[in-house]
């Protein structure tokens, strides 16, 4: 059976099953599971050091989990695949990374390339798109994030909010099934946060499947269909964001939310 059909059958775009991650003798993730259906927007909250970034990185195997599996489009990935040097395993890993896009706190744009070149790079190098077509698509994507006028600027000539919007366009250019955001507005001056959140809200409305690590609780409440509170490498509490925020059950979440106010 074709993997697209399998993914539709289960109804899930992404499923993480009991993800564990140890660094030497530190247990950072202690068995985290989640399922995202197409169009789900899931927010991940939790104190610094609770494992949010490590979990996101495990979902596309930027960090190889020490236990558990990630299933996307009906294909299941586990550590043994990623550690194997076989051609099939490497191909599978490339496929996973293509299907799961990532936007980082620190933008991570290539400084020597213009905005348009940053967006085209993946499609040209990885997807082997002809440069002309890739550039035209890059310009469309930059227009979607409100940056038509900035296509030929380098990152150093752009504000933080503009750089992050280029980074979002770059992630979209790979047509990922799922987009992961790791505190996308934490490095921004307060007056630039809104423009990035507005772009993310549009993506959510378009039905993109997204996982968002954020400290912007009001944004997370408004945009996400589900909220997960991580604590010490475990899911402490999860549910509809309004319920979690209005009536947190665990003392830890109560304290965390009180600190956010
Ligand atoms: P969060 O994003 O929630 O702040 P992280 O996932 O960055 O948390 O980190 C969770 C814990 O894992 C922290 O205690 C951190 O020090 C540890 N950690 C993360 N990456 C590494 C690493 N490469 N080596 C050792 N410890 C790590
Ligand atoms: Mg983090």
TrEMBL record:
Record's subcellular location: Cell membrane
InterPro entries for this protein: AAA+_ATPase, ABC_ATPase_HisP-typ, ABC_transporter-like_ATP-bd, ABC_transporter-like_CS, MetN_ABC_transporter-like, P-loop_NTPase
Q: Which domain of life is it from?
A: Bacteria
Cellular component, GO annotation: plasma membrane
Domain ABC transporter stretches: 14-257
* Keyword annotations from UniProtKB, A to Z: ATP-binding, Cell membrane, Membrane, Nucleotide-binding, Transport
An MF annotation (GO) of this entry:
ABC-type amino acid transporter activity
Indicate how the chain sits in the lipid bilayer: Peripheral membrane protein
Transport listed as a keyword: yes
Where is it mostly found?
membrane
Pfam families per the UniProt record, alphabetical: ABC_tran (PF00005)
Answer yes or no on keyword Transport: yes
Which family would the database say this protein is a member of?
Belongs to the ABC transporter superfamily.
Q: What is this protein called?
A: ABC-type histidine transport system ATPase subunit
